[in-house]
Specification:
This protein is an alpha/beta fold and 600 residues long. 36% of the residues lie in helices and 23% in strands.
Length: 600
């Protein structure tokens, strides 16, 4: 949440910063700003709204070869120009951008900043005022920065300019991600390598509680105690074409279309030399030792976890619990004797999941992160990582990461099953190939699915999803997708549950989307559809060949019963996409949201 960029070099920094912010807009997009430094001092431009609005506010005549920028997802203080970053201290000497939440900002204000008038409602302004105050009291900028960092509790990624130290960007992080990018005669700062791929693919990872002094020809990493740290750069292996929309109107549609290719890529990535699916032995060993697995995740990743539980229990025979990350850390259930934790997170940065990881590490329990982002915080901090290989997912609504999570969980379960001597009774590689083709058939049916969206959802204010067994979990994901981008109030229910209360909401014409891909409960779900139809609902049945009936709205090709979620979710993704499009919603950047949720 919130994106940070910085540039120090010989070129005018404005365009590099603005382009970088455009790439980071997925992290927050309610206001934005940049600050550039030149011989005349530091000039700040900021605006409420998107980077496009900020562009309109930037004076092209003001140049500066050092600069920092920020795109915001509001936590403290509503989205407004005044609360947008960068923030400055009262004398305007210091200018700062921040991603994260300073939990003790009230105390810091009370204890150190009495009499200082704040311009904004943000916790961020406290940091820059604090640094200004400590410098007035006689500390150097670096000492003041370091002192402020030691006092701060919470999460932060910070880039700081000092009007009197033209050649430096001061940088630090704790819990929030931040990288320094290396170039010839310039260096950059970014929350995500994607932002600065335009100028470099060489990056240095920063660790919590370090101070980094970035100059145009050097990067010095120090601990808060002032000791030098050496760290080799890495090459960001992201293809520019992966992060461009190309000819697509929206990233979401592009990412939905990429899913067949992602399935094939995952199979390849997890195939060993003997062409069999393989998982690192140390991960398998850890799973073998565990007497119970605890899956921790949020949002779409949590929905993937619910299906992961089915895979790990049914294929590998290991008991699994699935927990919402934001609850688990504060209400931990009684754990088994030898628990192992699996974190599922597209971004690998979700703060709710990370707080659980920190806690279970303190307790000494082993952990595995399943993520799309190599080197992300959850990946670095867990004992083991499995990558999704889905390529960057930029639309806020998660699509290809969800199906990739299911595929990797299926592989993990299948390989674990084999290691435990359990016979699956089917060849997962072959079945995943069938799934890839089935997904392709769905993304090729956009016109039909768009028609379903407009027939059922164009004017509705609410919508229910029902399903049984794994269809129930896919329904939860379908409902999340629909509400998140089209703002239609949507809820997913187990087929038999609606009549225990919620059926009271069914009115003439209320859309109810029913998934019917689970053979053993086909008749039951059809019974549930009859119950709502009898009360005026407008049912849309999505079934599977071999289980379909006349009048079903959409019939999916058959795939292995355990893998149906990988296919049944595709029309739901497309229905959400078209419902949002027909309602003129901003598909890729829905209101109030951000792609990676790095605050608790
Ligand atoms: O990066 P993560 O997978 O940890 O993110 C978790 C959720 O914030 C995320 O899945 C969210 O629910 C999606 N935007 C839904 O489409």
């Amino acid at each position: 949440m919130c994106g940070i960029v910085g540039y120090i070099g010989e070129k005018d920094s404005k365009e590099i910063l603005l382009k970088g912010l455009e790439r980071l807009e997925y992290r927050g997009y309610d206001s934005a700003g940049i600050a550039v430094r030149n011989g005349d001092g530091i000039t700040v431009f900021k605006e409420k709204g998107r980077i496009a609005d900020l562009r309109g506010a930037v004076d092209g005549d003001v140049k500066g070869n050092t600069g920092i920028g920020h795109t915001r997802w509001a936590t403290h203080g509503k989205p407004s120009r005044v609360n947008a970053h960068p923030h400055q201290n009262t004398s305007d000497r210091f200018t700062l951008v921040h991603n994260g939440v300073i939990e003790n900002y009230h105390h810091l204000q009370r204890d150190y900043l009495a009499g200082v008038e704040m311009e904004s409602d943000t916790d961020t302004e406290i940091i820059v005022q604090l640094i200004g105050r400590f410098v007035e009291e006689g500390l150097s900028t670096q000492e003041a920065f370091s002192k402020a960092l030691k006092l701060m509790k919470g999460s932060y990624a910070i880039a700081l300019l000092d009007a009197e130290e033209a050649q430096t960007i001061f940088v630090a992080k704790n819990k929030s991600p931040l990288l320094v990018g290396l170039g010839e005669d310039f260096n950059v700062v970014a929350s995500d390598a994607m932002a600065m791929l335009q100028v470099t693919d060489q990056f240095v990872e920063l660790m919590d509680k370090e101070i980094v002094i970035v100059r145009k020809d050097s990067v010095e990493i120090l601990t808060l105690e002032g000791e030098t740290v050496e760290r080799a750069p890495f090459t960001a292996e992201i293809d520019m074409s992966d992060i461009d929309k190309g000819t697509y109107p929206h990233y979401m549609l592009k990412e939905i279309d990429e899913q067949p290719a992602v399935m094939r890529k995952i199979i390849q990535a997890y195939q060993g030399e003997d062409e069999k699916l393989t998982i690192k032995p140390e991960i398998l060993d850890a799973l073998q030792i565990a007497d119970r697995l605890y899956i921790i995740a949020a949002g779409t990743s949590y929905h993937a976890g619910l299906i992961g539980k089915e895979y790990l229990e049914k294929m590998a025979g290991i008991p699994v619990e699935v927990h919402v990350a934001s609850e688990f850390g504060y209400n931990m259930p009684l754990l088994s004797e030898r628990p192992m934790f699996i974190f599922i997170s597209q971004s690998g940065e979700t703060a709710d999941s990370r707080q659980v990881l920190v806690r279970i590490k303190e307790l000494g329990f082993p952990s595995l992160t399943i993520t799309n982002v190599a080197g992300s915080t959850l990946s670095r901090e867990a004992n083991h990582t499995l990558l999704l290989h889905a390529g960057p997912e930029i639309a806020v609504a998660s699509t290809k990461a969800y199906t990739a999570q299911l595929a990797v969980l299926a592989i993990l379960a299948a390989v674990t099953a084999e290691a435990r001597g359990r016979d699956l009774g089917f060849d997962l590689i072959q079945e995943m190939g069938i799934v890839a083709n089935a997904i392709q058939s769905q993304v090729d049916m956009k016109e039909e699915i768009e028609k379903l969206a407009s027939d059922f959802l164009s004017t509705t204010r609410n919508c229910f999803f029902i399903g049984r067994l794994m269809d129930y979990f896919v329904g939860l994901e379908g409902a999340l997708k629909l509400k998140e981008i089209s703002y239609i109030q949507a809820e997913g229910f187990a087929g038999g549950e609606l009549k225990h209360g919620t059926i009271a909401l069914i009115e003439e014409g209320t859309p109810v989307i029913a998934l019917a891909t689970q053979e053993s409960v086909n008749l039951n779900i059809r019974g549930n559809v009859k119950e709502v139809a009898a009360r005026g609902a407008n049912p849309m049945i999505i079934s599977m060949e071999g289980q379909s009936e006349d009048g079903d709205s959409h019939v999916l090709p058959t795939v292995h019963e355990l893998l149906t979620p990988l296919v049944s979710v595709i029309p739901l993704q497309l229905i959400s996409y078209y419902a949002a499009l027909h309602r003129d919603c901003d598909v890729d950047k829905p209101r109030n949201l951000a792609k990676s949720v790095t605050v608790e």
